[in-house]
Amino acid sequence: MAKRRVETMEQNRVKLITAARKAFAGKGYSTASMDELTAEVGLTRGALYHNFGDKRGLLAAVVDQIDSEMASRAQEIGARAGDGWQGLLAEGTAYIEMALDPEVQRIVLLDGPAVLGDPSQWPSQSSCLQATKRTVERLIAQGRLKPVDAEAAARLLSGAALNAALWIAASDDPQDVLPKAVEAFHALAAGLLVSS
């Protein structure tokens, strides 16, 4: 009986997150109706409150899911680069480019910070930071990067990519801003390279 209850609760969480992603992407956080959202998936507001506490908690779960997907996608792209340095650049560039995705733009880069606060404090950003730190440590050990503090370098690289994505999302012309942001990101990152 308890197992069935846990399964039902997990199914309800998945339903609510899926419906919220759609509603937040389409209408934005402030205008998305929780009554419409819960009715759409055949649940009550009580199920929402039980699983997420409130609308803000639901947004946090949606942002965490999307941001984690973004990090995974960026890491996959970086892994295909074949070289640690090129992978680091490809990963950061991929994250920046995802700012053009309407769902990412609306939920993660505009509504997320407005409602949830500083993105660098989100749990999903913390795991992304740790992955970048490990890459930086490897590149320092290989003699490719200057022997700087790996955490400091990872924080600055992650912060640069995040702020570039935030800039693109808030821009009146994201397509115009994107190449400028990517070029500047590459130039900043190159400052960590050991001179040949």
From TrEMBL:
Keywords: DNA-binding. It holds the Pfam family TetR_N. The keyword DNA-binding applies. GO terms for molecular function: DNA-binding transcription factor activity; transcription cis-regulatory region binding. It comes from the Bacteria. Residues 10-70 form the HTH tetR-type domain. Residues 33-52 bind DNA. SUPFAM superfamilies: Homeodomain-like (SSF46689), Tetracyclin repressor-like, C-terminal domain (SSF48498). This is TetR family transcriptional regulator.
